[in-house]
Design brief:
Helix content is 64%, strand content 8%. By secondary structure, it is an alpha+beta fold.
């Protein structure tokens, strides 16, 4: 069969090259239209109850992730000149297209009782620029007397101040978000520079924009880096510019195809699938090395180009095919999960790894047929003295030190298994950003001064229309007690709810005396009732606080919303904290008449993180089973199947052990390593065992066959392993912690896989071979 394929490729090489060129042009056009994703990571399937609860919340109350916060810490904010600039900043930010509302100290209002109309009328506390420090000090005293704003817009203990911007949702989900966030940051930094203040920025809009921008930048640099590094290694190995350019052409076409696939499937570039283009380079280069190595070795033996090309396709075609199938399985199994982001990664990676094989088997032999015969210098690497010494050393160990190899392997595995017991699963929303990143540092600023900015939503469902009005005061008292419990936590800020709005109204009714900031009681309600229907007079500014209060009750008066900002405390502590809040809520609200729902970005993150990890664990199992089935089909021998799997399971166990000892937690980015590494590392095993099987037909002596296989495959295995390891090491320079972990953990796994396949596997083949 492979002989016929070889004959077909060589006979119709021009037509195949022309067809490939046409398809490449079409793919390049499609690839140029691929876009960045600005949406949340879609880790949870649509049938998940937490996903459905979040979607219902968005439908009822709107987005919880559209607030951008700006912070500053200074004791001089109420200095007349600085405050006037701060007031102007607030007004300027409101004029930026896409900023829907600004909640800040300059925008703060006070409610004043109008006894004639029996209305509480809102007035701005800071109506405009101040001419004198005395008038500003008076306004400041009025503002600080309103306890509603304390902890929300300022921290009196640390002199930290916060400005919250509500950003248009449609712009947040488009490329225009970059210019919008850039304009906000730029204008704020101008204020900071003018007044010698350090500005802090956080909130999900900024975090998402920062992540998307970094993804796009890193994808370009890693793609360029992987191409240049591969080019350098190929040039050193083959000493041939044409071979290097040919190999680079293979992976460049593969990269373009991968981007085109994303667009054709309607996918966008995310943090995860942005890894695919550089991975295509890393995985595609070994295809080129395998083919070129076989071509050069055959040409050196025969001296005939066409025969060498025929031998290359017929002998290496099946090896490369199964190597790509194994790698495609390692990536493609993610498509079996229900997580949209994993599914996209698996589909695109799996398809394009197989396309790499088609590109390689057409482009490499067809192009070589038109190129001049390889020169002696191009094939010098086949007899490299250093490599010959290394292969001789490997041969010696496989023949004479089997006991040492097996005992050492068992000891290393024992230490690794102990390390595995130390593994823990933990993830953070900003897990992928290093602690030195300004976004991370700014998030910690808000956590230290305002207890965080990550949104948590608690819904109190009365299970019936107008249920809030029944026992209304009792419900509000329960919510107030739950809010006090939440506020007592060191990682959750004072919640916002209709209760806080009522406290604000009560203080206003009693002439804004701070001693009267509290929940209305049975005595207050008859007097307050006429004032609860508020209208804004024509001279007053829009009542942002009232709009805020109205957003905490649904239109059916059935569900109350409690909105909490909290710290990014990770997937271990978060369930504990939520469990404590849940227990307190169950104590206050009879579950027979109330339903308590926790949702928001914080909850969906926790659910998504757990779901991805569970899905990746299942993917590893599927990858192992599918690869085992391929090995059994390829070799049709249980003995060879065992020999093919053990050298690749050992590196995975060692890597997991290293993670445990090094304190690297299990999270989506680190669990991803195992399936990917298994799919790539098995290539080395296939290369070795296929050649072992081919060599065994010429000799019945297992030891001599193993020695022959070591010498015939060792060079290409070492070269491809170096390319793979170097390719993944590039990811260690990422600005994302997850990508860094993917880089060094996969590189470690591949180093171990190379050693086990060149030392452990030959010794195992000899040890379990039938004795004559």
């Amino acid at each position: 069969m492979w002989g016929r394929i070889a004959a077909f490729v060589l006979k119709y090489r021009f037509g195949l090259l022309l067809l490939l060129a046409v398809v490449f042009v079409i793919a390049a056009f499609e690839a140029s239209k691929v876009e960045l994703s600005y949406e949340y990571t879609r880790a949870i399937p649509t049938d998940n109850p937490k996903y459905q609860a979040y979607q219902q919340f968005l439908k009822t109350f709107g987005d919880d992730g559209n607030l951008l916060v700006i912070g500053v810490q200074t004791e001089d904010l109420f200095n007349k000149n600085i405050f006037n600039n701060y007031l102007q900043l607030s007004r300027d930010l409101k004029q930026i297209k896409g900023v829907e509302q600004v909640l800040s100290i300059p925008e703060a209002i006070i409610l004043k009782k109008d006894t004639v109309t029996e209305k509480l009328v809102p007035y701005p506390i800071f109506p405009g620029s101040f001419e004198s420090q005395t008038s500003l000090d008076s306004a400041r005293k009025t503002f600080e007397n309103l306890l509603f704003y304390r902890g929300l817009l300022y921290n009196p203990d640390t002199h930290a101040y916060l400005m919250a911007l509500s950003v248009n949702k449609q712009i947040l989900n488009s490329a225009a978000r970059i210019s919008l966030i850039g304009a906000i940051v730029s204008r704020s930094n101008e204020f900071g520079t003018r007044n010698k203040l350090l500005m802090r920025f956080s909130g999900l809009p900024l975090i998402r924009t920062n992540m998307a921008t970094k993804v796009a930048t890193e994808m370009k640099w890693f793609l360029l880096g992987s191409v240049l590094l591969s080019a350098l290694i190929l040039l050193v190995f083959f000493r041939s510019l044409s071979n290097m350019l040919l190999s680079l052409l293979v992976v460049i076409i593969g990269v373009v195809f991968s981007l085109a696939t994303m667009h054709l499937f309607g996918y966008k570039i995310t943090l995860l699938n942005a890894l695919i283009p550089p991975l295509i380079v890393v995985i595609g280069i070994p295809n080129c090395i395998y083919f070129l190595n076989k071509y050069h070795s055959s040409f050196r033996q025969t001296g005939e180009k066409r025969k060498a090309l025929y031998e290359m396709i017929s002998k290496m075609g099946i090896v490369t095919l199964f190597c790509n199938i194994a790698a495609a399985i390692g990536f493609g199994v993610f498509a079996l999960t229900k997580s949209a982001i994993l599914k996209e990664f698996g589909v695109v990676a799996g398809i394009n790894i197989m396309l790499l094989f088609i590109i390689s088997i057409i482009l490499i032999p067809a192009s070589l047929s038109y190129l001049p015969d390889p020169k002696a210098g191009h094939m010098k690497y086949l007899s490299n003295r250093w490599l010959m010494t290394l292969l001789g050393w490997l041969e010696n160990w496989a023949l004479h030190h089997k006991r040492t190899i097996f005992i050492s392997t068992l000891l290393i595995l024992a230490v690794s298994i102990v390390g595995i017991t130390r593994l823990r699963s933990e993830a953070y929303i900003l897990d992928d950003l290093p602690k030195t990143d300004p976004v991370y540092a700014d998030l910690k600023f808000f956590e230290n001064h305002f207890k965080g900015v990550m949104p948590l939503e608690i819904l109190i469902d009365t299970k019936r229309k107008n249920g809030i009005r029944a026992n209304m005061l009792a419900n509000f008292i329960k919510i107030d007690k739950l809010s006090a419990f939440i506020d007592s936590s060191s990682v959750m800020a004072r919640p916002l709810s209709i209760v806080e709005g009522l406290k604000f109204l009560r203080q206003a009714y009693y002439h804004n005396d701070s001693l009267n900031y509290g929940l209305p009681n049975d005595f207050d309600l008859p007097f307050l009732a006429p004032y609860l229907s508020m209208k804004t007079d024509s001279s007053a500014k829009p009542n942002g606080v009232m709009k805020l209060a109205n957003s905490f009750v649904d239109s059916n008066k059935e569900t109350l919303r409690i909105s909490v900002n909290m710290a990014d405390i990770g997937s271990i502590r978060l369930p504990q904290i939520l469990g404590q809040v849940q227990n307190r809520a169950n104590e206050l609200f009879d579950t027979a008449h109330y339903k308590i729902v926790f949702t928001g970005t914080t909850v969906t993150f926790l659910e998504g993180s757990a779901f991805i990890i569970a899905g990746l664990k299942q993917s590893i199992i599927w990858a192992f089973l599918l690869i085992a089935a391929c090995m059994l089909y390829l070799f049709k021998s249980i003995r060879i199947l065992i020999c093919s799997l053990l050298p690749n399971l050992i590196p995975l166990v060692i890597t997991a052990g290293v993670m445990g000892w090094a304190g690297v937690p299990l999270k989506p980015s680190t669990v991803l390593v195992f399936s990917i590494a298994l799919g790539i590392a098995i290539d080395i095993t296939i290369r070795f065992l296929v050649n072992y099987k081919q060599d065994s037909t010429a000799s019945s002596n297992v030891e001599s066959t193993v020695i022959q296989t070591i010498h015939s495959t060792g060079i290409s295995i070492i070269y491809t392993s170096l390319v793979l390891i170097a390719g993944f090491v590039i990811f260690c320079f990422s600005g994302f912690g997850g990508t860094q972990a993917l880089g060094w953990l996969t590189s470690l796994t591949l180093v171990m896989a190379t050693l086990t396949n060149l030392i452990f596997l030959p010794a195992l083949l000899i040890a379990i071979s039938p004795k004559k």
